[in-house]
């Protein structure tokens, strides 16, 4: 058993009806070393290195990485009409929600004392990179979630990178979502190309989007000169439920997430033993006929958990400890219960709010914090694509008020240069009086 134990405050208040047998935190040292080499190579040799890694990792021999306007149109023409309509439906929902969120991020200017003006501006990031994973399935919602908010935020340019073997529909999705440029580059080499720039790929200011372990490690290593949205681990879903929970619905939603990846973490947190046991049985039953059972069963076996809590307080405490990427609430009064929770990536209130709707098309973003990061951050949103940058300007009355304490404080700290910078303005003001 490598599961990280629950906090001491919950000892004796939890019982594992089904325990995970592995911890999601894997040894990443080999990945880190390989990625460091890729980043260094791409930084030094640009397109030539990208081309070599594309051949090595993706069996790609593309001479030109960028998708041309004609190729964009071809991908669009190949898109099934219903798939296009569904994609545009999702794009519009994500756009509307992002616009509503952006309307709450307002510029500010205040005058806290006479003559002192403080404020902030809301500035779109100039150029962002959207990494669009290929994966085992064509995740048509992926480009929507990383590209559309950037366009709504007003970024000058959104650059998309996706693996060269990605489904053509993914190229169409990038185009429909508004990507200014699309490159068929995947993996760590794509992150390197966007972070450092190459002959073909422009250097971006911030990189968005999830990926595999190599993409995630590359984002971690390039962070600093270039921004990143977050470090995304394997997907997660937890459901908090009382005796009113429906084991069939709960099992269906757990397995719907478990089919993402063999390292997906899925769990039920409940105060009802009968529900806990029925859910375990229902998961086993549904796995018998699930087409993606090979992946989902491994995820459930290794990372699935069902936790029986002593009372509601323990259920809330354990949920906040997990800080699940996706957290569903199946209780008698889900809205009241939801207000008691604070750590999660995105919250799904009531049994009608399944993760699948958010993953695909309702409008909230599906790029969310994992591995406990929900304790300190939320997910990707339109605010991730803007900077809140402060400014200040002073009239004479403000200089009279702030200069003397600034001079004294600088002197106390032994910073003569600071002291002089404050004093020269104060002295000039006194001389002109």
UniProtKB/TrEMBL annotation:
Presence of the UniProt keyword tRNA-binding in the record: no
Cofactor binding annotation: Binds 1 zinc ion per subunit.
Active site residues of this protein: 325 (proton acceptor), 326 (proton acceptor)
Top EC category: oxidoreductase
Residues involved in NAD(+) binding: 131, 189, 212
EC numbers: 1.1.1.308
Cellular component aspect of the GO annotation: cytosol
Record-listed Zn(2+) binding positions: 257, 260, 359, 418
Keyword rRNA-binding: no
GO biological process annotation, one example: L-histidine biosynthetic process
Cofactors demanded by this protein: Zn(2+)
Binding-site residues, substrate: 235, 257, 260, 326, 359, 413, 418
Entry keyword set: Metal-binding, NAD, Oxidoreductase, Zinc
Family annotation (Pfam families): Histidinol_dh (PF00815)
InterPro entries: Ald_DH/histidinol_DH, Histidinol_DH_CS, Histidinol_DH_monofunct, Hstdl_DH
GO MF, any single term: NAD binding
Family stated for the protein in its record: Belongs to the histidinol dehydrogenase family.
Name of the molecule in the record: Sulfopropanediol 3-dehydrogenase
Gene encoding the protein: hpsN_2
């Amino acid at each position: 058993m490598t599961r990280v134990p629950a906090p001491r405050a919950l000892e004796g208040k939890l019982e594992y009806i089904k325990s995970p047998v592995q911890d999601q935190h894997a040894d990443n040292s080999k990945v880190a070393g390989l990625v460091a080499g890729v980043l260094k190579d791409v930084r030094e040799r640009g397109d030539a290195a990208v081309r070599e890694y594309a051949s090595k990792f993706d069996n790609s021999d593309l001479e030109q990485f960028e998708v041309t306007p004609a190729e964009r149109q071809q991908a669009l023409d190949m898109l099934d009409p219903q798939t296009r309509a569904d994609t545009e439906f999702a794009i519009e929902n994500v756009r509307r929600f992002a616009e509503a969120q952006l309307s709450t991020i307002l510029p500010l200017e205040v005058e806290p004392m006479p003559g002192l003006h403080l404020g902030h501006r809301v500035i779109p990031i100039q150029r962002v990179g959207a990494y669009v994973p290929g994966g085992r399935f064509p995740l048509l919602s992926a480009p929507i979630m990383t590209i559309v908010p950037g366009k709504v935020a007003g970024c000058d340019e959104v650059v998309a990178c996706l693996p060269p073997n990605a489904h053509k529909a993914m190229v169409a999705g990038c185009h429909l979502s508004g990507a200014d440029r699309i490159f068929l580059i995947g993996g760590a080499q794509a992150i390197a190309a966007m972070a450092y720039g190459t002959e073909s790929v422009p250097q971006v200011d911030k990189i968005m989007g999830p990926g595999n372990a190599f993409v995630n490690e590359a984002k971690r290593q390039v962070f600093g000169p270039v921004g990143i949205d977050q470090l995304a681990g394997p997907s997660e879903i937890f459901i908090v439920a009382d005796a009113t929970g429906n084991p069939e619905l709960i099992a269906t939603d757990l397995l719907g997430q478990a089919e993402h990846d063999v390292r997906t973490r899925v769990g039920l947190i409940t105060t009802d033993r009968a529900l806990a046991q029925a859910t375990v049985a229902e998961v086993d039953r549904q796995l018998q006929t699930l087409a993606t059972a090979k992946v989902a069963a491994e995820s459930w076996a290794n990372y699935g958990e069902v936790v029986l809590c002593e009372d509601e307080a323990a259920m809330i405490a354990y949920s906040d400890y997990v800080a699940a990427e996706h957290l569903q609430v199946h209780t008698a009064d889900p809205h009241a219960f939801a207000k008691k929770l604070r750590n999660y990536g995105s919250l799904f209130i009531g049994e009608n709010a399944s993760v699948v709707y958010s993953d695909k098309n309702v409008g909230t973003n599906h790029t969310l914090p994992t591995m406990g990061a929900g304790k300190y951050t939320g997910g990707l949103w339109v605010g991730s694509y803007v900077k809140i940058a402060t400014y200040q300007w002073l009239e004479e009355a403000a200089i009279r008020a702030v200069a003397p304490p600034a001079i004294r404080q600088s002197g106390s700290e032994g910073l003569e240069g600071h002291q002089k910078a404050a004093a020269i303005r104060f002295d000039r003001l006194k001389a002109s009086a």
